[in-house]
Each structure stands twice: as structure tokens, then as C-alpha cells.
Amino acid sequence: MLIPKLRSYKGVTPKIGENSYVDDSAILIGDITLSEDVSIWPLVAARGDVNTINIGARTNVQDGSILHVTRKSKNNPDGYPLIIGEDVTIGHLCMLHGCTLGNRILVGMGAIIMDGAIVQDDVFIGAGTLVPPNKILESGFLYVGNPMKKARPLKESESAFLKQSAINYTELKDDYLAELVNN
């Protein structure tokens, strides 16, 4: 049985922006909005069932990552949606749960970002880093560790790489889309 990669939940179906790519093995469910030029790679699971997921332009979510949200409740009337800005690179096997990410961020492989955490623009999160609930990661820094610690200001080359990584994945996504058209 073929499982559709875009699945409705309570009548709400994911919205896919222009020139975006969602791999056939990825599953997106419910209230999810992808902006233009987003790439969702193999085995990504995203569930916008009890809150919303919004992903900004030119963001890439790499293989095996999990995206989820926190439901609205009496104690937390808005719950925690998952909001991801533009030009964000989310490495392989990351878990993002009800957090907010700004623009030009790199989330290293295997990182976990928990409910209510806010990552400001221009941040580098090292592989395997755990960002606990409700933490704020300030713009312009490298964060590493479990739990995360502010390691140091970003080097100029690292800041430049944040945007370049998004460009690299946008170009790769375009190659994949071209293959689909040609086959």
C-alpha cells in the first residue's frame, strides 16, 4: 500500500509553496505550510495535528528529522506551534518540537530543540546539542552541548556559511525537481 506523503488531518492538508520539494518517503500531516523553495528530504516526519508548522523560504529539513508541535491547553492557551524562518538548514536526524527558529540558522545533526525555545537569527547549533524548553539562543553565537551552552561568537566564515548552506540545498533541491520533470 502506498502511503501519501501529504495527509489531511481534520480536513486540513499541508500547503506546499512554489518550487518546493518533498521527498516521496517524507510524511507531512495536517496544518503545515511550506514557503517557496523549501526542501523536505527522505524520511522526514512532520505532524501539524494539534498545532501549526510553518517553514520559511529556502529552508531545508534533512533526512530523518522529526517536526512536531504542542497542543493548546488551559495552562498554555496557544500551545507551541513550530515556526522555522528563512534560509535555515536542519541537519539529519534532528528533532524540533514546538519551538521558534529565526532566519539563517544551522541546526547540526541530531540536535533536539524543545517546546518554547526561541532561536534568534544567525545562530549555529552544534551536532547533538539539546536545547531545553523555553531557552532563548541569542543571535550571532555558536551553541553546543547537552544541555546547550553558548560557546562563542560566530566567526565571519561561519556566519557566511549559514546563508551558503541554504543556497547549496536550494540548488540541490532544484536538481531533484529537474530529475522528476525529466523522468
UniProtKB/TrEMBL annotation:
CDD domains reported in the protein's UniProt record: LbH_gamma_CA_like (cd04645)
InterPro entries: LbH_gamma_CA-like, Transf_Hexapept/Carb_Anhydrase, Trimer_LpxA-like_sf
Name of the protein in question: Gamma carbonic anhydrase family protein
Organism field: Colwellia echini
